[in-house]
Amino acid sequence: MSVYILGIESSCDDTSAAILEDTTVLANVTASQDVHRAYGGVVPELASRAHEQNIIPVIDRAFHTANIDKKNLSAIAFTRGPGLLGSLLVGVSFSKALAIGLDVPLIDVNHIEAHILAHFAQKKDKIKEVPAFPFLCLIVSGGHTQIVKVENYDKMTVLGRTIDDAAGETFDKAAKIMDLGYPGGPLIDRLAKEGDASAFKFAKPRIKDYDYSFSGLKTSFLYFLRDALKLDDDFIERHKADLCASIQKTIIDILMDKLERAAKDTGITNIAIAGGVSANSGLRNAVTSLGDKYGWKTFVPDFEFTTDNAAMIAVAGYFKFLKGEFADQTAKPYSR
Ligand code: KG4
Ligand code: ZN
What we know:
11 strands; globular; six-stranded mixed sheet; binds 5'-O-[(R)-(carboxyoxy)(hydroxy)phosphoryl]adenosine; five-stranded mixed sheet; binds zinc ion; alpha/beta; Nucleotidyltransferase, domain 5
């Protein structure tokens, strides 16, 4: 018999609901929040309010699209953390109330693990190969940058992580310095396609093991532009594409260097990327070509499952459902 899971994601600035039949995505509906654009970053208080407004319409649309009756639901999976507490509270509280109303069990999901398990979510019309265990996953998002060794759905070890900024944050900050808009990652990605990645060089960190650091790069970029603007007011405007290509290439080189090392040292040849920054065309190409070079089997997620979405929460919930791991009404959100 099929398992139907409703997934609810509200950890940051996307309100998302998905319905899966086992691992097949029947609906994955996301409302992004435009209110933050004017501020150049997520404003937590505004995010919680927007989640409050979006959550019912988003869930309603997910049920419509999936075309299943609420009575058939097997469980509700929700993001418990990490994330913004006020944002998480909306999804957690709503999930608890709905679980009582529909008399179904609750499943709490870790947002980062869900980004990884997004690789197991299948689109109805396009079944894809999923990574075999063990695999390495580079998770790159607005809040996280980690290399994780994944030995099973519930056995994951963090091999390295950023000691300061996340990769997505670095894209967003670089875009902000160039006054491109928010979120910066997709904007830089688009402009980089027309630029020369070797036009400018920026500082790369020396950090131990498989850890990352991006704060030095951000500062190096900021100071470089500050000096250049002193000589030429129009510097950014005239070199926008080259700047985007160069900063993107630097971020990708930093990311790939540690991933390559981790793969060599562990001998693991199944390599995946996940999280919002895994939508980046340069990163997708870089992991694929490194894979060709070393004979890795690489896994790049469908765009729909890169940035925050509830399908990944529901699929992570599905694996916990199979093991009978449920949460109860006392589950509280956690920020880190
Ligand atoms: O996973 P996500 O939606 O949220 C977090 O859990 O943080 O990731 C959002 C991040 C933002 O920093 C955004 O700029 C970045 O992912 N991002 C990209 C691209 N699309 C989204 N970064 C680089 N290139 C992209 N195409
Ligand atoms: Zn995320």
